[in-house]
Design brief:
heterodimer, A: five-stranded mixed beta sheet, about 10% helix, B: alpha/beta, Rossmann fold, TATA-Binding Protein, 2 domains, eight-stranded mixed beta sheet, 12 helices, binds zinc ion
Chain lengths: ~70, ~325
Amino acid sequence: MTLHVNGEMSAYPEEVATISDLLQYHELNGQMVIVEYNQTIVDRTAYATTRLCSGDQLELVHFVGGG
Amino acid sequence: MQDRYSRQTLFTPIGVQGQEKLKEKHVLLIGAGALGTGNAEQLARAGVGKLSVADRDYVEYSNLQRQQLFSEQDAYERVPKAIAAKNRLQEVNSLVDVRAYVQDVQAEEFEQLIVGVDLIIDATDNFETRLILNDIAQKYNVPWIYGGCVGSYGLSYTIIPGVTPCLNCLLETVPLGGATCDTEGIIGPAVQMVVAHQSAEALKILVEDVEALHGKLISFDMWKNQYTGIKVSNVRKDACPSCGKERQYPFLAPGNQTKTAVLCGRDTVQIRPPHKMERDLDQLRERLHEGEVEQNPFLLAYTLGTQRLVFFKDGRVLIHGTKDVTEARRLYYKIVG
Ligand SMILES: [Zn+2]
């Protein structure tokens, strides 16, 4: 499946089916992340149930504490 | 000196009028590490009238790679970061009124520091302090600019009370652990990118050009060459305990004060005395017989074997060489009694 993530188009393996899977793939699971999915912010409770389709656009921003 | 701001007043959105406004403004910087020193230098050079800089730590050699106001001499002398920052800022621009605060800023300190402040720059290294900052900003209706970075990654967001969502709306819970400079390191360009965003937003707020504000949560990776902006304005929550209709400012509650904290980027635990006190460093020195003692006007560093304790005048102690709070407390009581 091809997804636009943070402005870059890449091919993802089959096991990436939901937003949760995508976060896991990018090693962002368990982190404080804000996800924009096709221009809409997704509620955290819906990450596991939001199924991705080829061509979807996602922006992932995770919070870090360093300064 | 006459034309020191000429290139900035030639820039139309600021102009002579904006420059006059900058001179009347007071910015509070929480933290004088990488983001704090970067922002402070920008704002001092730009001619902001008054800068208050608060930090709980002192300069070390590992800071020099990215903390732009500090010198080798500062690290050698273990000068508190707030003091070293003030010294350098006054060299850069003697017209700016710079105030240094060597302290761990929690709710009580914030209540004093916030008076007369137009803007807060977040340059802390932890979310506990940021959530206290967030509550204070909401309570006193002061805008603030979040910044964070680790590795080659960084992000920033400008929070305007009554207009944008607050940090508590965005986070929902306090992030625990995750990547820190401790484990992943940090490169100067990632710091500078966050500083550039924070200080640009600061100038817009200070010259009162709110239309020009970014309005997005922005993030970037200087090594992966990615740049992202997300519109988060509709994440604002009516039920938010920090900015909602029935707000209680949960992070200002006295029970929420931490007495011990593990410092980011350091194998170090800080112990804060339960009550305000001033520690007599000379008296302490007389009690220390074994080991090695170094002292400057602000702190006393005590090395015993592989362990090092740094005592500040405001009563705080940094215990180096451990991340274990229990171990740190044991050492502290062994020496202080
Ligand atoms: Zn809120």
